[in-house]
Amino acid sequence: MSKIKIGIIGAGSISEQHFRAYSHHPEVEIYAVCDLNEERAKAKAEAYGASKVFTDYHDLLALPDIHGVSICTWNNSHAKISIAALEAGKHVLVEKPLCQTVAEALKVEETVRRTGKLLQVGFVRRYGSNTEILKKFIDAGDLGEIYYAKASCLRRLGNPGGWFSDIKRSGGGPVIDLGVHIIDICWYLMGKPKVKSVSANTYNRLGNRSNVEHLDFYKAADYNAALNTVEDMANALIRFENGASLMVDVSFTLHAKKDELAVKLYGDKGGAELEPELAIIAEKYDTILNVAPQVDHPSFDFIAGFQQEINYFIDSSLGRTETRSPVEDGVEVMKILCAIYESAAQGREIEL
């Protein structure tokens, strides 16, 4: 049986997770690679056995044998490449966020419906084993109705610079880069309630902080400390039509003692923590219990999560199952992200 041919558009840092996961899938051949930087594309192609290399994604999409593509490019190109890929008859896995604006998101959604092709949004935390375990508890009713969630993703020093800090290419800073993950995973586990309103603040007080010494952090390949047009940090209160609420805060840089990742959910029968490690909080026989599941990965396992995401993409594209992160969810999360920026800019709550 011949293998499914996959193309990867964008050969930057996050693409490595896609390359690795596809290379471990027994039914997949990494067939083509595209990047604006031809040398980088060639290096990935050589490392993973791809026979085709391009610098123009249209040339990759013109290959009739390509079954699907991963889009791992700058945020400002997600929508146009996704639309072009769908119209070329390809299935699409696009890195988060889906795009930069709600208008773009709706165009992508319309193209999915018109072409009948799959588009899976890269909400990779939905595919983590800790999320899968917790969702079983939630679906069984162990938490009851989840009416409040709280999530933080705070970096004390971690502005990647490069395209991440260029608002034209990224669309924003920690809200659209980090917040998208924690907002989505809370919304997903809360049952994807309809958003009512968003009230938010963004701050740009500390800048790139390239002056800090003796502390390493991830830097984009095109790191440039002089370019920084995105927020340092943000906070938001998201209200849902069912009365539930979600509070989030995120930062690229902050005068904090240490980095923090926390995801917590509260229901009327029990609570849970997804990060920093999985825990269930219950009440039984008039006693509060802190339940620690005995599992291999109580926190999100980066490599396994991406493998599961890729597996789902392949299975969904072949009609074996349904994706956990369809285009419709990408649109709704985009509405929240854009409302956060709009609320902060206008200094008022935004009704959706």
Instruction: Tell me the fraction of residues in β-strands, as a range.
Output: 25-35%
SSE string: EHEHEHEHEHEHEHHEEEEEEEHHE
Number of helices: 10
The helical percent reads 25-40%
Cα separation of the termini: 49 Å
Spatial strand order of the main sheet = 14-13-12-11-7-10-9-8-15
Quick one: biggest sheet?
Answer: 9 strands, mixed
Category by helix and strand content: alpha/beta
Radius of gyration: 20 Å
Overall 3D geometry? globular
Q: Which ranges are low-confidence, i.e. pLDDT below 50, for 5 or more consecutive residues?
A: none
Average pLDDT value? 97
Summarize the structure in short.
This protein is of the alpha/beta class and 352 residues long. Helices cover 33% and strands 26% of the residues.
Description:
This protein is 33% helix and 26% strand. It has 352 residues and is α/β, with parallel strands linked by helices. The strands form 2 sheets. It has a 9-stranded mixed beta sheet with strand order 14-13-12-11-7-10-9-8-15, covered by helices on one side. A 6-stranded parallel beta sheet has the order 3-2-1-4-5-6, sandwiched between helices. It is globular. The termini are far apart. The relative contact order is 0.17.
